[in-house]
């Protein structure tokens, strides 16, 4: 994919990120939202996605309240959940 | 098996070295003498030689006769190897005098220790200043202009006034999530639970009220009524028709955001500072962070490390341990890389691995990630240049 195409995707995902950031940040366990390449089996793909950073990743099947399951897409943009742990100042 | 001739050869070589060592070390540019295999065109041969270590290789023509290294000594070949200037390896946690490079331990006299990021120039006055984080140089806001900055930082033995090398010049205040009302317990936003409505897809920037209501509805729908969220109070009584006061309440509770954790200190004596980062060198240009970019940093704790940028435009909540307890600060527009730092590396300059250009200012992370602010955001916030 060309740099321009990636840049266009980044801008599109950023807009969706901005729209939902506050809501997503209020979900317990969510420590951040950002733009990055979606990962598949731990390896980055070429698809720019909205990344939700969580303190600890959980299998969806273990989340009792289905409303707490993070979305897979938002406004047609792919959402990828990545575990970062608790973020602290260094 | 034939007798290995090597030990005998080695003894001979060492004897030759001993016979001529003082004489060799007296030559200009020679920093060491040893025994090793001779190298020929970059390939190690099997021939033992007296190895002469020099700071820099110099063409024969440029040497005075007495500084020329003989081709042979006591029948053994010599080999000249360039090793640069040799000195005892100092860790960045030590006291650096008379010259302080960037990348070493530094800190406000009341903190533990962080990293001296780099030297910068004040855009207005042209003065040379030291760049690091607010939580390194300004004790997470709990500091006064002119406060003492030590090298190394207090945790590494830096004392006030013996090790004071700079004074706090200015800083960008950190806005903590819980600061609006002096250290209250974490408060959850008041939630309204109006009749279900669909968020207005036509809501625009001017329809702030509509957006706020839509957001609030979304949250209410997220926070159901199961055990998992039972600890979160969900007032059910708010009348959605009283929309104006509700919106005001929500906006008053908006979480303050930050763009940088940065501060400047004024050197007590500029001449003490070397404008280069340990093991990285001089950095005087910038580069915007990009996905996949390879970066490195030199810092007080993990020293030289490399990483890759994975996330851009990040909004993140960062936990701070302050003298007033644990606080949280929300940042927008940040960059996240693979893990390449630990506590004490804060303030390190993030530099791109290819062109040695400044990309960001490190200030936090976890075992899985490192967080930094794009360099342009830092320079603009403090009105400085590299």
Walkthrough of the structure:
The complex is a heterodimer of chains A (90) and B (386). Chain A is built from one helix and five strands, in the order αβββββ. Chain A has one helix at 3-25, and strands spanning 30-40, 43-54, 73-74, 77-83, 88-89. In chain A, β1 (30-40) and β2 (43-54) form a beta hairpin. The model of chain A has no long low-confidence stretch (mean pLDDT 93). Chain B is 15% helix and 35% strand. By secondary structure, chain B is α+β, with helices and mostly antiparallel strands. Chain B is elongated and about 85 Å long. The N and C termini of chain B lie far apart (65 Å). Chain B is built from five helices and 21 strands. Chain A binds chain B through residues 6, 10, 14, 17, 21-23, 25-28, 31-37, 44, 48, 51, 53, 63-65, 67-68, 83-90, and chain B through 114, 133, 135, 140, 189, 215, 218-219, 221-224, 226-229, 232, 255, 261, 291-292, 310-321, 330, 334, 336, 341-346, 362-371. β5 (88-89) of chain A pairs antiparallel with β19 of chain B, so a sheet runs across the interface.
